[in-house]
Write a structure and sequence with these properties.
162 residues, 0% strand, Rce1/LyrA-like_dom, transmembrane, membrane
């Protein structure tokens, strides 16, 4: 809707339900494998050392570097690489906020990560018009709003003291 308001022409969405089911199945497994490391292993010690925002920013930067080679292989130029970095880091900050708000919830990160991949792959037709600039700006705004939400009492995971 926002892309249309900005004058971009978009084809109608054509969800192919077997593809949707396939993407969810594949991406939930891939996200679970990644989030065991990013969220389950690395996030809590980084949160202890750098705070919630610092941990999210640091993990987001490393997470973007992890994905930078595929973005380069897709032929992204410098501007698009910048916006993929903004979006990737912002996604990780949001996932860090979710982790915090769910008291160490790795499943919330898996669900969010899965959603990122499924929506990218389908929007609006097999990822044909995904706009990294719009997504990056919206994610930064969401991060700002998320940071304003009241925190729950954080319950440490894996016996790491708060």
């Amino acid at each position: 809707m926002l892309q249309r308001k900005l004058g971009q022409t978009l084809p109608p969405a054509e969800p192919i339900w077997p593809a949707v089911i396939f993407y969810i199945a594949v991406y939930v497994l891939a996200a679970a494998a990644e989030e065991v490391g990013w969220t389950g292993y690395a996030l809590e010690p980084l949160r202890q050392r750098y705070g919630l925002l610092g941990a999210g920013l640091l993990l987001g930067a490393v997470w973007w570097l992890w994905h930078a080679l595929p973005f380069l292989m897709m032929g992204h130029g410098p501007a698009l690489m910048f916006w993929t970095a903004v979006g990737t880091v912002a996604h990780r900050v949001l996932m860090t906020l979710l982790y915090d708000r769910t008291n160490g919830g790795v499943p919330s990160a898996v669900i969010y990560h899965t959603m990122i991949n499924v929506t990218y792959s389908l929007y609006p037709v097999q990822g044909s018009h995904y706009d990294y600039r719009i997504v990056g700006v919206l994610l930064v705004l969401l991060c700002s709003l998320g940071a304003l939400l009241p925190r729950q009492n954080h319950v440490p995971v894996r016996g790491v003291p708060s």
